[in-house]
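Researcher: I'd like a candidate sequence for this fold, 215 residues long. If you have to choose between options at a position, lean toward the conservative one.
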């Protein structure tokens, strides 16, 4: 007997959404804050792990664990005690950042890590004022052949590389979400403000360079 197929026009059985217990690393501002608000609104139970330097009063109801990332191993019992089913890392910038989280979490979780458009070769070429690959970019676009794009160029970013982050997380079965230049509520970087303020002013022509256009 072949597989059962519903009659034409028959709706498939509805799968009810189930609330999950989710650990969010770095969920107090910008992208992490937006993720926390979405998950909370959907009814999921959250444990937000952050340093405690920023904890806005209007955060959605959730549990908090204050810890430095490199000290997470000392909080394994607290993380396990939350009994999580999933984890989202919004603030992994280096290989060490990623390894610290995975070593502290219980096994067999659904994992998501926030990555960046800067893993792509086309983005890396912008730093050298040249072009490599056609846009728009997608998951099949080539990634940068060289690592550590900001080493020696930006303070504190010598070991930054989202490709290192992806290497660690993807090996653990995670989903990597490569974000472009995002903007919205809680955006403290304001990288798109030079465009947005002209839109708010009703401008119909906005001059900007090719590098900004690609991003």
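Model: Candidate sequence:
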């Amino acid at each position: 007997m072949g597989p059962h197929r519903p009659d034409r026009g028959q709706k498939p059985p509805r799968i009810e959404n189930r609330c999950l217990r989710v650990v969010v690393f770095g969920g107090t501002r910008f992208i992490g804050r937006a993720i926390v608000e979405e998950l909370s609104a959907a009814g999921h139970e959250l444990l937000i792990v952050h340093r405690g330097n920023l904890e806005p009063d209007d955060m959605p109801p959730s549990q908090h664990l204050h810890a430095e990332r490199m000290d997470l191993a000392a909080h394994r019992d607290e993380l396990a005690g939350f009994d999580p089913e999933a984890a989202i890392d919004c603030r992994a910038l280096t290989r060490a950042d990623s390894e610290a989280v995975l070593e502290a979490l219980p096994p067999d979780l659904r994992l998501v890590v926030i990555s960046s458009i800067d893993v792509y070769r086309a983005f890396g070429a912008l730093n050298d004022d040249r072009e490599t690959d056609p846009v728009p970019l997608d998951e099949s676009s080539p990634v940068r052949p060289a690592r550590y794009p900001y080493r020696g160029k930006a303070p504190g970013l010598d070991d930054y590389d989202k490709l290192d982050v992806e290497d660690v997380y993807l090996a653990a079965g995670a989903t990597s979400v490569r974000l472009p230049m995002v903007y919205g509520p809680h955006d403290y970087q304001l990288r798109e403000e030079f465009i947005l303020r002209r839109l708010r002013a009703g401008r119909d022509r906005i001059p900007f360079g090719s590098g900004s256009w690609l991003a």
